[in-house]
């Protein structure tokens, strides 16, 4: 097993991720699934992540199918080191692993939430879904109730109102997960972020609140930065440039 781990690391270092994956899959083919799980347990988390990043729900890998919750959590928290600002690769990996079996999804999510850096990674997973998630956390519906054509300021005001609702719910002990679901898991069972949010809220409420507070802080920072830019207004033309240069000509 040690030699397989070393060989996989060498291939990953050389940039041959497909070759590393084939090496790992060969273990399962020749010695069985349990043997591959043992190998994955010995692999550095960064190497395991490098392999998993190449696959998603549309391109399945035996590695993604057999990785345990503990192995997956150790690896997925390192995703931020790749600097993927959209979070698309992170969502693809998480979806491919946790939603491959609806019965075990909560086990994977709970393990991620319990590891250092896990809640932040789950917050990254929901990046760019602030409107839908904040609507879900405050109303139980994923449909934001505001007119998207009314401009940035109206949107920011709506976001701040949602942040205040979240704060009120937490500060006064009104548990965010206690309200009756407005939608069932069956209705939003898309194997994507909506189903993940539903599972966190109604099956893992403590983890859900921790993730929501991270998103709440990020959203507030964004709104504050946007307001500061709006107050600053357009930059004034520097002396000796623009119209002054034209008049000089």
Describe the structure in your own words.
This protein is an all-alpha fold. The chain has helices at 2-13, 17-31, 33-42, 45-52, 62-66, 69-76, 88-98, 105-114, 118-125, 130-139, 152-171, 193-203, 205-232, 243-248. Helix 2 crosses helix 3. The radius of gyration is 23 Å and the shape is elongated. The N and C termini lie far apart (76 Å).
Key traits:
disordered C terminus; 0% strand; 249 residues; mainly alpha; 14 helices
Main beta sheet strand tally, sense and closure: none
The unreliable regions are 241-249
DSSP, total strands: 0
The structure class reads mainly alpha
Number of helical regions: 14
Morphology call: elongated
Share in helix: 55-70%
Could you state the order of secondary-structure elements as H and E? HHHHHHHHHHHHHH
* Mean pLDDT across residues: 85
In short:
Helices cover 65% and strands 0% of the residues. By secondary structure, the chain is an all-alpha fold.
Give the arrangement of secondary structure elements.
Layout: H1 2-13, H2 17-31, H3 33-42, H4 45-52, H5 62-66, H6 69-76, H7 88-98, H8 105-114, H9 118-125, H10 130-139, H11 152-171, H12 193-203, H13 205-232, H14 243-248
């Amino acid at each position: 097993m040690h030699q397989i781990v070393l060989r996989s690391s060498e291939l990953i270092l050389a940039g041959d991720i497909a070759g590393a994956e084939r090496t790992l899959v060969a273990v399962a083919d020749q010695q069985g699934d349990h043997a591959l799980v043992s190998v994955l347990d010995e692999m550095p988390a960064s190497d395991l992540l490098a392999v998993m990043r190449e696959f998603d729900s549309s391109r399945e890998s035996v590695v993604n199918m057999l990785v345990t919750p503990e192995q997956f959590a150790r690896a997925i928290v390192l995703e931020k080191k790749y600097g993927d600002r959209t979070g698309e690769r992170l969502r693809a990996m998480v979806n491919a692993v946790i939603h491959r079996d609806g019965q075990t999804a909560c086990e994977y999510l709970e393990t991620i939430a319990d590891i250092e850096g896990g809640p932040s990674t789950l917050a990254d997973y929901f990046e760019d879904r602030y409107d839908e998630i904040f609507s879900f956390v405050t109303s139980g519906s994923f449909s934001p109730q505001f007119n998207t054509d009314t401009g940035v300021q109206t949107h920011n005001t709506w976001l701040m109102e949602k942040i205040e609702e979240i704060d009120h719910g937490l500060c006064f002990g009104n548990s965010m997960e206690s309200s009756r679901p407005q939608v069932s898991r069956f209705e939003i069972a898309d194997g994507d972020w909506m189903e993940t949010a539903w599972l966190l809220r109604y099956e893992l409420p403590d983890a859900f609140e921790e993730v929501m507070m991270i998103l709440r802080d990020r959203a507030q920072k964004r709104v504050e930065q946007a307001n500061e830019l709006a107050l600053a207004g357009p930059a004034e033309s520097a002396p000796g440039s623009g119209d002054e240069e034209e008049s000089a000509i």
